[in-house]
Amino acid sequence: MLNISEIIQTVKQLIDVRVQLVKDEINETIASIMARIFLLLLMMTVSVMVLLFASFSLAFYLSEQMYSTYKGFLYVGLLYLLVFILIYFLKDYRGIVASFQRFLKNFVFGGRHKED
């Protein structure tokens, strides 16, 4: 016959094992999310660098074509101003915001969906 204290001890051990499994799963999930966020930040940094050098290249090219240094940079600046104005007017468009949120959610959380 099993003793009550043995049953209690076994239940405590089962609970401890389950708690440890949950802790390990949470740690793994957090590490995965942090790695994805770091990767996203790295991708953004590289994208900014590419955009910066492409902008300088376009500005110097336009400057060379127009025989005026400031005009090339002015036109590139105006191009970015137009892009900014376009983004400003489209910022409240629900389709763009929802698709951006969906992309970030899928990228950061790895496409996992909460099951009901």
From TrEMBL:
The lineage of its organism: Bacteria, Pseudomonadati, Bacteroidota, Cytophagia, Cytophagales. It comes from the Bacteria. InterPro entries: Phage_holin_3_6. The keyword Transmembrane applies. It comes from Cecembia calidifontis. Keywords: Membrane, Transmembrane, Transmembrane helix. The chain crosses the membrane at residues 37-61, 73-90. This is Putative superfamily III holin-X.
